[in-house]
Design brief:
- The structure is a single chain.
- By secondary structure, the protein is of the alpha/beta class.
- It has helices spanning about 15-30, 45-55, 80-85, 95-100, 105-120, 130-135, 140-150, 155-160, 180-200, 200-205, 220-225, 240-250, and strands at about 5-10, 35-40, 60-65, 90-95, 125-130, 165, 210, 230-235.
- Strands 1-2-3-4-5-6-7-8 form an eight-stranded parallel barrel, surrounded by six helices.
- Strand 7 (about 210), helix 11 and strand 8 form a beta-alpha-beta unit.
- The chain starts with a strand and ends with a helix.
- Bound molecules: 1,3-dihydroxyacetonephosphate (13P).
- 1,3-dihydroxyacetonephosphate binds next to strand 8.
- 1,3-dihydroxyacetonephosphate (13P) binds near residues 234 and 235.
């Protein structure tokens, strides 16, 4: 059975004190959520402090991006996955649509970052998803398959144990428009088939596929009821302790 993952992507929100308060406030509210993995992704400057404050809890800490390599060098502004591990992270979100759209992320850089993240012993949350125009023109499946085939290229079966895939249709992010549970299921099944073709059935059956895009306390249960939806990557609703806790503790 695939253990569900509920991850909160805080994007570029919260000063350090706010990040710490949210993380510390979350701890008791999700302490009994034993049947799922809980991850939060604060900004870089809050990672170490938040990770320290969450030590011994059931909440893991993720970065929102990383460098394409672990070797130290002259790469101004970059942060290597080994440095994120050093700061207390266990996960890295890679290839979020906002990075693809506004910061030049490509499937090739996603692939390098994913390899570097795994080499550092971290879990990569690899994001894929189509734009509205791609869905409307009937190309959503091929766009997502290409993102996966290039993004996950060269990963071994053992590497794939450290991969979580997040399907985030770009048209559903921050818009209040959620994919219907049927749309999510259809794409998640397609993602699993794509992974089966590239990495085999065992890997495809084991890999967790999260849905992201306007996940809220009132739609998490129906999304999670879909066979191939193994969790959620939550943006806006992860910023408040109560709403994120009620997503984690969905019934
Ligand atoms: P929202 O939940 O705010 O739509 O954001 C989704 C997302 O981008 C998570 O990574």
């Amino acid at each position: 059975m695939r253990k569900p993952v509920i991850a909160g992507n805080w994007k570029m929100y919260k000063l350090l004190s706010e990040a710490v308060n949210t993380a510390v406030g979350l701890k008791p509210l999700v302490a009994n959520a034993n049947d799922c993995e809980i991850v939060i992704a604060p900004v870089f400057t809050a990672l170490k402090t938040v990770a320290d404050r969450l030590e011994g809890s059931n909440i893991r800490v993720s970065a929102q991006d990383c460098a394409t390599q672990n070797e130290f060098g002259a790469h101004t502004g970059e942060i290597a996955p080994v440095m994120l591990k050093d700061a207390g992270c266990s996960h890295v979100i890679i290839g979020h649509s906002e990075r693809r759209q506004f910061y030049g992320e490509t499937d090739e850089s996603v692939n390098k970052k994913t390899h570097a993240t795994i080499a550092a012993g971290l879990v990569a949350i690899v994001c894929v998803g189509e734009h509205l125009s791609e869905r409307e023109s009937g190309n959503a499946n091929s766009v997502v398959a290409e993102q996966l085939n290039t993004g996950l290229a060269g990963l071994t079966v053992a590497d794939m144990e450290r991969i979580i895939i997040a399907y985030e249709p770009v048209w559903a992010i921050g818009t209040g428009k959620t994919a219907t549970p049927e749309q999510a299921q259809e794409m998640h099944a397609h993602i699993r088939q794509t992974v089966a073709a590239s990495h085999g059935n065992d890997v495809a059956n084991a890999v967790r596929i999260l849905y992201g895009g306007s996940v809220k306390p009132d739609n998490i249960a129906t999304l999670m009821s879909q066979t191939d939806v193994d969790g959620a990557l939550v943006g806006g609703a992860s910023l408040e302790v109560e709403s994120f806790a009620s997503i984690v503790n969905f019934k």
